[in-house]
Amino acid sequence: MNERAQAYREAVELALEEALPAPKEGELTATVVEAMRYSLLAGGKRVRAVLALAFCKLCGGHWREALPFACGIEMVHCYSLIHDDLPCMDDDDMRRGRPACHRVYGEAMALLAGDGLLTKAFETVLGFPEPEKAAAAAKALAELGGHRGMVGGQCIDLEADGREVGMDLLREMDAGKTVALIAAACRMGCIAAGAGEAQMAAAFRYAQGVGMAFQIRDDILDVLGDAEKLGKYTGMDAAHEKRNYVTLLGAEAAQDLVESYTRQAVEALGIFPEDNGFLTEFALSLTGRES
Amino acid sequence: MNERAQAYREAVELALEEALPAPKEGELTATVVEAMRYSLLAGGKRVRAVLALAFCKLCGGHWREALPFACGIEMVHCYSLIHDDLPCMDDDDMRRGRPACHRVYGEAMALLAGDGLLTKAFETVLGFPEPEKAAAAAKALAELGGHRGMVGGQCIDLEADGREVGMDLLREMDAGKTVALIAAACRMGCIAAGAGEAQMAAAFRYAQGVGMAFQIRDDILDVLGDAEKLGKYTGMDAAHEKRNYVTLLGAEAAQDLVESYTRQAVEALGIFPEDNGFLTEFALSLTGRES
């Protein structure tokens, strides 16, 4: 699996660099383009891009065809991180081991860089040579990235502090913040290959399983990490600002949920005759079950 | 002209309300949707929407067909105002006579509302029933709204304070900040009607003429307004923080430019056999020449 994922990642890095080349000397808009590139080309696991390419291949397309979609989804993911890091949101100074975009370019330019990347995402997706598929993929990206998807999840997160947080709220928040873009990636891969409704539905179940398992595992590592920092792990008493699956259910039940969502993802792949195990392994690696 | 513009505006208000209905009771993402609606449905002249509808009709389509495009362009315009008003940008407390979005909903929610509107813009444009036209219009919106268009113009504006501002910089800044979205509106109207390249090119010349004339006139009113506040108008000595056409060229030469750009707009309409004067009058009204 690793070689194939690596080949996907390398192709994505090249395509991103091509989609947003360095500004020419003296260009008046150079700074915003540099700020966009600073964050977009900072590496990362490119999970969403890999999923788009892999689903294109799984549905009978050539994975390279889905590169405009893979790039578009990474741009949306990247803009959301830039805006999330701003002082009025999470106020994070660091991202991927480097100063956050606004720490280098200032808040106003980082805001514009995010806006520019979100806009460029649609331009890139719409660069797909077949207009029907381009329109369908861009529409999926807009629906899942917007107020009923990712932006909606961030809104729930913002307001969670002052609210009674139960399982319903947590599930809807993670459906927006984590599942939505993963679902967009898988769906856009299917669209690139001209997949049918049954394949799209299976791709969504896979995305939901992987996304939720990934998120809950993140919550577990988060709480365990905090507990380790405190020198002890005391389960429900672990010091933690925010409610999450572990503080609500306990670590063991949360781990059971990870397993069950991972199973949902793997089982969803059953309908694809061409499945060669890549997406199964990818799901297991993302959710901490890599052998 | 006024009745027709009014009919267009009313149809746009209805279509915007339909595209982004009020959240249902208890919806967890209600706040971001309310923030989006607060700014989007605050009225305004809907100049860009009217241009999209009018160019659709001018190119032989029915103007109502272009409503998804008209709504999308208003959403992009609206998101840019929300983000512009944020403390890290222009730090404006008021917009259209009401508190700015972030003064009502807070900075973080206003940021998300802007992101949500930009995303919703593409979803709305891509709701156009013919996928080829939908994709072409969304691509035009992305190209003209992004770092080579509107976002680029905002970047130039941000950096203008510390720079030697000459005519070239001013022209490129206004091409991004003002002309780009107006050009997108005219182009998308043409696309809705299935117009050809010659019509698209004429629509761009019209948009450029109207956009530049509108911007320079705004500069003139701005400087005259400041001078009136000071009780006198002293031409190049008028107190004004920012360089603009008046401070660079003087009021008379700036007014000559308004005339010449307005003429460019009106002359560009010459190739349309079905022109009935609406867009000529609209150009004159926008640039202060309304009879």
Structural descriptors:
mainly alpha; 13 helices; two-stranded antiparallel ribbon; homodimer; Farnesyl Diphosphate Synthase; 291 residues
Rg over C-alpha atoms of chain A, rounded to the nearest angstrom: 19 Å
Question: What about the largest sheet of chain A?
Answer: 2 strands, antiparallel
Mean pLDDT of chain A: 92
Considering the protein shown, what is the CATH homologous superfamily of chain A? Farnesyl Diphosphate Synthase
Number of strands of chain A: 2
Low-confidence stretches of chain A: 233-240
Structural class by helix and strand composition of chain A: mainly alpha
Identify the quaternary structure here.
Answer: homodimer
What would the CATH topology of chain A be? Farnesyl Diphosphate Synthase
Q: Which architecture of chain A per CATH?
A: Orthogonal Bundle
Side by side, the strands of the main sheet of chain A go: 1-2
**Terminal residue distance of chain A:** 11 Å
The proportion of residues in beta strands of chain A is: under 5%
Most extensive interface between two protein chains, with residue counts: A-B, 55 and 55 residues
One letter per element, helices H and strands E, the order of chain A comes to: HHHHEEHHHHHHHHH
Helix content, binned percent of chain A: 55-70%
The DSSP helix count of chain A reads 13
- How would you describe the shape of chain A? globular
User: Number of domains in the coordinates of chain A?
Assistant: 1
CATH class of chain A: Mainly Alpha
